[in-house]
Amino acid sequence: MKTESNYFPQTQIDPTQESAGTLEQLSLLADLSQDFVKSMDINDILRRAVKRIKSYMDAEAASIFLVDANKQNLICRASAGPVDVTDMAIQVDNGIIGRTFTSGESQIIIDARKDADFVCHVDTLTGFQTRSVLCTPLITQGDTIGVLQVLNKQDEQLFKTRDSDILRLLATPIALAVENARFTLNFVEQRRIKKELTLARKLQRSLLPGRLKPPFPVVGSNISANEVSGDFYDYFELSDGTVGFLIGDVSGKGIDASMLMVRASSLLRWIGKDHLPPGQWLAKANKELCEKASRGLFVCAAVGYYNPKTDIAVWSNAGLPPVIYKCPQCTIKTWTADAPPLGIKASDLSFDQQTMKLNSGGLYFLTDGLTDARNEHNERRELDGIIEAIKHTESESPEVRIGKMITSARRHKLNDDATVLLIEKRDHLQENTLLAEQFKASPCQLKMIRHKILDVSKQVGFDDDCCQQIILSLDEAITNIIRHAYKDVVDGEIEIEIKTQNKTLVFYLRDFAPEVYDSSIKPRDLSKPLPGQMGINFIDSVMDSWEFATPKDGYGNLLIMKKEIA
Fold first, then answer.
1. Average pLDDT, the chain
2. Pairing of strands 504-511, 493-501
3. Closest Cα to residue 495, out of 440, 449, 544, 438?
4. Taking the CA atoms of the chain, what radius of gyration do you get in angstroms?
5. CATH placement of domain 4-186
6. Contact between 51 and 80 (Cβ < 8 Å)
7. What does the pLDDT average to over 213-235?
8. For position 521, what pLDDT does the model report?
9. Distances in whole angstroms, Cα of residue 552 to Cα of each of 136, 142, 156, 205, 513
């Protein structure tokens, strides 16, 4: 293969001319650089460049080819000259341009028709006559991304080694401009996608039912494995006091699954308002979903009703994991789904129903994101792991129980969205909300919050010393959120809720920062105290218990602290 060094001997150059040429080159480089910063449109950048290079190199034509995403073809992105070859594609191993790209070396061709790699059919199609060729690769960070080419020196002259050096010099800022433009466009596109996913997530969250004041008998929680979720749950109250509930899991991931999730959730809620028996409820939804194709997606779902007056729940399950029943005085009971998911088969499909009087127990519905969560050995939790988690939390309030179940799943590797729905009569839990406040994550808010915590603590009967200890514990917890969870965030929010549950004062402190796990936060060794790192120890000494759980909407962190009322 011939390169520029094989063609021309070194010639003596007048220093005066060389100095003038250098200044002219620097001026062109400066002009090109200014052109590049005027626009982030890569096509506009390249069109500007080839016009100036054609004129400067005193050539009949110039063009820039960039390799495609698959690195199979070189596509002309800009051209200047009598024939517009923009969008023309050349295989990376074909022609003089392909040889320049694959070799990464500049090429000077005195007589194009004598070169074995010359592709003459372009001249045949366009009528342009290629005599001489000068090509140089566009290289950035060691990677060749394209080729800069000029054709036919004006006035029948030939390209020389100096022309090749100049073209190589001009190729560098072009390659950088292309790379910067691509980086900027990718960044903008990622921001756009992130914004759209955030909006989609907010839309999905808006479809989840709002928090209802206890003793409402249904509590749910959800966490997404990705930006948007395919899981959903809902509950609603009918005119006779019966509570309808539903939970679902759409197959697949991404936007398609999330859109079907919105449709399926709305459809099931709409049908459930008619108070059809759960089996008929699912059958009607299945028919609707099958009539409108969902690109091979389907929906696992369970629906049912709970009557607080009779304490009886009735439900039907289509494809979700087994339903679990647990009460303090009885053994675990489970029901396996006996019907396939919705949206697969429209005719001759029936959905059986199950009925259970809850007494003092709870009925757990869940999606397979919980059972499929993997530990560090890539072992699934399976249903037995979920049952063990239920056993260890049955003395807690329903919100805390499902929060802990989701938190436990978060400590594992989530391969799918995880959702849990708990149906339970709550007469045994005497609960009263004393404070519910949302405030900015700012030290300026601490004084106001301290006064409110003091009022609540006095209201339930704690003495002055104990009130001060409680205030300091909450102050430490809130300060940690501001300093650490929201360290790079200026508009963070914190929610505080204080409740009495029977004879216990319970503090719920929730933020919206990236998730942390309670296994990573624990009291420090008191034999090695460090300044500013003893807050958890103080909380641990003041509160009777404290722990982290996942908020109802699966986002952020929830710190739960409990103090027994004397």
1. 82
2. antiparallel
3. 438
4. 35
5. 3.30.450.40
6. yes
7. 79
8. 52
9. 60, 50, 78, 10, 15
Strands (E), 204-256: 218-223, 231-237, 243-250
What does the DSSP 8-state code read for residue 22? H
Query: SS3 for 60?
Result: strand
The answer to whether residues 472 and 539 touch, using CB atoms and an 8 Å cutoff, is no
**Which one-letter amino acid corresponds to residue 232?**
F
The DSSP bridge partners found for residue 78 are 64
Q: Running DSSP on this structure, what letter comes out for residue 486? A: T
Tokens of 18: 């060389």
Q: Which of 3.60.40.10, 3.50.30.50, 3.40.50.1950, 3.30.70.270 would CATH assign to domain 208-428?
A: 3.60.40.10
Nearest to 59 by CA among 143, 166, 185, 139: 166
431 and 399 Cβ atoms separated by less than 8 Å? no
User: Residue 371: what residue type?
Assistant: T
**Phi, psi angle pair for 554, to nearest 5°:** 75, 15
Q: Is 438 exposed, middle or buried (0-12, 13-18, 19+ CB in 10 A)?
A: exposed
List, in sequence order, the alpha helices (H) in 239-381. Answer: 254-272, 278-291, 368-371
Which neighbouring-strand residues pair with 433?
499
| pLDDT range class, residue 48, cuts 50, 70, 90 | confident
Q: 430-566 has which fold?
A: Heat Shock Protein 90 (3.30.565)
SS3 helix, strand, coil % of the chain, rounded to 5?
40, 25, 35
* 257-277 pLDDT tens trace: 777 888 888 999 999 999 999
In the DSSP assignment, the letter for residue 113 is G
| Paired tokens of 432 | 């009263």
The rounded distance, in Å, linking the Cα atoms of 409 and 558 is: 15
List, in order, residues 6 or more apart from 254 with CB less than 8 Å away. 226, 228
Which residue type does 504 have? Answer: T
pLDDT in tens, 379-410: 888 898 888 888 877 777 787 788 778 877 77
Spatial CB neighbours of 490, under 8 Å, sequence gap ≥ 6: none
CA distance 50 to 150: 9
CA 474 to chain centre: 32
Instruction: Return the DSSP state at 481.
Output: I
CA distance 389 to 422: 14
Strands of the sheet with 545-549, listed across from one edge:
431-440, 493-501, 504-511, 557-564, 545-549
| Residue 146 per-residue DSSP state | E
Report DSSP letters for 381-440, one per residue: -HHHHHHHHHHHHTTS-HHHHHHHHHHHHHTSB-SS-EEEEEEE--TT--EEEEEEEEEE
The alpha helices in 104-160, defined as continuous H runs, are 121-126
| Structural domain spans, the chain | 4-186, 208-428, 430-566
The residue assigned the tokens 């757990």 is 364
pLDDT band at 363 (very low <50, low <70, confident <90, very high): very high
| pTM score over 0.70 | no
SS3 39: coil
State CA 269 to chain mean position distance. Answer: 27
Q: With H, G, I as helix, E, B as strand and everything else as coil, classify residue 158.
A: coil
User: Which tokens is 503 given?
Assistant: 């004879």
The total of other beta-carbon atoms located within 10 Å of residue 221's CB is 25
